[in-house]
Amino acid sequence: MLELVTWPRNPWSIFDELESLQTDMSRMIAGQERDQAGDRGRAWRRPTYPLMNVWTSADGMVIDAELPGVDPKDVDIAVQGNELKLSGRVNATTAAEGETYHRRERPAGEFTRTLQLPFRANAGGVKANYKNGVLRVTVPRSEEEKPRKIAIEAA
Amino acid sequence: MAKTEVVKRDDNSTKVVGLPETGTVYIPDVDISENGESVRLVADMPGVDQQSVDVTVENNVLTIEGNACTPPPQGYEALGREYAVGKYRRTFTLSHAVDTEGIKAGVRQGVLEVTLPKREAVKTRKIAIGG
C-alpha cells in the first residue's frame, strides 16, 4: 500500500527525509543528460519519479502521475495480471547554440515504476490520458473479480 | 556583469508575512538559460494550464504562480497520495539587464516557459573589425 506522502519541494530543509522516502518500487535510471553547468545548478535528485496519486473503487483504479513536459510517445504503460508498469523517458531541454545554462533542476532521464494492483486488471480496458503534464491511467478490474451481488431465493 | 547575477534564487520567498496561506505551496523546479538576446526560464508545474498560471513583475521581482487543477476522478476514493494538488509559487530577482516590458510566457503540458529579453544596451553585439 502506498503511504500518504505530501511532497515538500523545498530541497534543503527535508534533505535527510528524502533518503527514507526511497522505495525499491521506483528509481531514476542513469542517462541524465546534464552538462557540467547543469549539475552544479541542480539542487537534488528525486528518489521517486514520477510521483503518483492513486484512487480505487469497486470498478478498478485510477492512477495520476506527474510527468510535466513529457512526450506521450515516450511513455509506456504495461499491465499484466495485477501489475502495472510505467516506464519512459523525460528529455532534457538542450541548449541551443550560444545558450548557456545557469540552473538545471528539472529531472530528466529514464524512469520505471511498478505498482502492485490489489486486483487482476482487465488489460484490454486500460485507458490513459495525458493533460497539463499529468498522466491519468484508468485500470478496470477484470469482470470475473468484480464483487457480485448474490440474489437470495425465497424458499 | 557576472552571469549568475541575471536571476537569483530566493528560497524564502514563499513565506508571506501577513495573511496565512491556505493549502500547500510548492516551489517548482526550474531550468534557467541565457543567450545573447534573452534569458529563458522553464518551470515544471504539472496540473497547471494557461488559465491557471500567473506571471508578474514588480520592482524587478519576477513571480511565477500557478494552481494545479486536476480534479480527482468521480466515484473513486483515495488510496495513496504522494503529492498534493496545490499552488506553485517562486520568485526571482531580475537584473536591470532584463527588459521587463518584453517578457513573454506560455504553458505547454504542465511546463511554463518564460522568455525575458535583454535590454538593447546589454545585448551581445558583434563588432566588425576594420581591415
Question: What do these coordinates show?
Answer:
The complex is a heterodimer of chains A (155) and B (131). Chain A is mainly beta and 155 residues long. In chain A, 8% of the residues lie in helices and 36% in strands. Chain A has a four-stranded antiparallel beta sheet, with no helix packed on it. Chain A has a four-stranded antiparallel beta sheet with strand order 2-3-9-8, with no helix packed on it. In chain A, strand 2 and strand 3 form a beta hairpin. The N terminus of chain A is likely disordered. Chain B contains no helices and ten strands. In chain B, the strands form two sheets. In chain B, strands 1, 2, 5, 6 and 8 form a five-stranded mixed beta sheet that branches. The relative contact order of chain B is 0.27. By secondary structure, chain B is mainly β. At the A-B interface, strand 2, strand 3, strand 6 and strand 9 of A face strand 3, strand 4 and strand 7 of B. Strand 6 of chain A pairs antiparallel with strand 3 of chain B, so a sheet runs across the interface.
Topology diagram in text:
The complex is a heterodimer of chains A (155) and B (131).
Chain A lengths: L14 H7 L4 E4 L6 H6 L10 E6 L2 E7 L8 E6 L2 E8 L9 E5 L4 E8 L10 E5 L2 E7 L15
Antiparallel strand pairs in A: 1-7, 2-3, 3-9, 4-5, 5-7, 8-9
Chain B lengths: L6 E3 L15 E2 L3 E5 L3 E7 L8 E6 L2 E7 L9 E5 L5 E8 L9 E5 L2 E7 L14
Parallel strand pairs in B: 2-8
Antiparallel strand pairs in B: 1-8, 3-4, 4-10, 5-6, 6-8, 9-10
